[in-house]
């Protein structure tokens, strides 16, 4: 009988963390061995997620959990201030990270890539785990070849700290692989209210971030040329939309020793 994958979830009491806990508990080839969060320490995570105990008590220290328990993979959905330190710690302790927390800088990603390679451990970092969102990014990349003007609008709940979203950044990066400059025929712009045109990438794609209660995760890419426009949009109405991608990623890092940035690279 194949041994089950021992999974820990960091940020277990957050909305994404709870969805991951529920998803892991439902898989036959996985076993939840640790739930890490600063909230509800000592309580059974099953009581919080499914109103029934699962035997895993919430603990505060990720480092202690990694030191005291055998953990194959750690899923991290915490916050931008912690994600780099957490991912580095997971690799240093010999476990495999699956990271959905956004906010990592380019130099941090490079350092984590090097550490993953040195340790020979799979590490997957994804700005978005929804398969539909990954397809949206791939379609936007293809459209960039044919449209010289493009802007991105991303909409999230007002509890999201980082802006723009990792999905928007990744989308712009993919589009820039097809075209190194957008909006070259735009007129000179004057902002009467600073920031009205959003953030601007090096390739001149404008990114607009919306933070409103009621939203989960949404993005549209608007591409334009003479006489036409193409809008590519994806909506996640429930966090369950991310779970197939998370489960796929856990299995992937257990059978591959490479560093992956973006779910599109394993689909």
Model description:
By secondary structure, the chain is of the alpha/beta class. The chain has 2 domains: 5-125 and 240-265, NAD(P)-binding Rossmann-like Domain (Rossmann fold); 131-236, Dihydrodipicolinate Reductase, domain 2 (2-Layer Sandwich), CATH 3.30.360. It contains 8 helices and 12 strands. The protein has helices at residues 15-25, 45-50, 62-68, 83-92, 106-119, 131-144, 166-178, 243-255; strands spanning 5-10, 30-36, 58-59, 73-76, 96-99, 123-125, 149-156, 199-200, 206-211, 217-225, 228-236, 259-261. A 7-stranded parallel β-sheet has the order 3-2-1-4-5-6-12, with helices on both faces. The longest helix is centred in the middle third of the chain and has 14 residues, at 106-119. The protein starts with a strand and ends in a 6-residue tail after the last strand. The mean pLDDT is 96.
List the helices and strands and how they pair.
Elements: E1 5-10, H1 15-25, E2 30-36, H2 45-50, E3 58-59, H3 62-68, E4 73-76, H4 83-92, E5 96-99, H5 106-119, E6 123-125, H6 131-144, E7 149-156, H7 166-178, E8 199-200, E9 206-211, E10 217-225, E11 228-236, H8 243-255, E12 259-261
Parallel strand pairs: 1-2, 1-4, 2-3, 4-5, 5-6, 6-12, 7-9
Antiparallel strand pairs: 7-10, 8-9, 10-11
Helix pairs in contact: 1-8, 4-5, 6-7
Which keywords apply here?
2 domains, seven-stranded parallel β-sheet, single chain, 8 helices, alpha/beta, 267 residues, elongated, Rossmann fold, Dihydrodipicolinate Reductase, domain 2
